[in-house]
Design brief:
Elements lengths: L1 H11 L5 H29 L4 H19 L7
Length: about 80
């Protein structure tokens, strides 16, 4: 998922903002790599053995909500 994010950022940001965009991508990727297992482990411990599927479902719903809320208007 890192490579498509880098490609998308390179396409969308200006030449003077590329380093900032790459830093933001690396930060988000690292944060997700650290917090994801912790959140999933806590969900499995607190809820049940179905905690992994619950975590994946929650992340999916959040992703869809972000896509809906961040919809880019059609260009004419």
């Amino acid at each position: 998922m890192n490579t498509p994010a880098v490609i998308e950022a390179g396409d969308r940001v200006g030449e003077h903002q590329v380093s900032i965009a790459m830093t933001a991508i690396a930060m988000c990727y690292t944060l997700g790599s650290v917090l994801g297992p912790i959140a999933t482990g806590a969900t499995v411990s607190c809820v049940s053995e179905h905690g992994l599927m619950i975590s994946v479902g929650i992340v999916g719903v959040l992703f869809i909500a972000m896509l809906i809320l961040r919809r880019v208007p059609a260009q004419e």
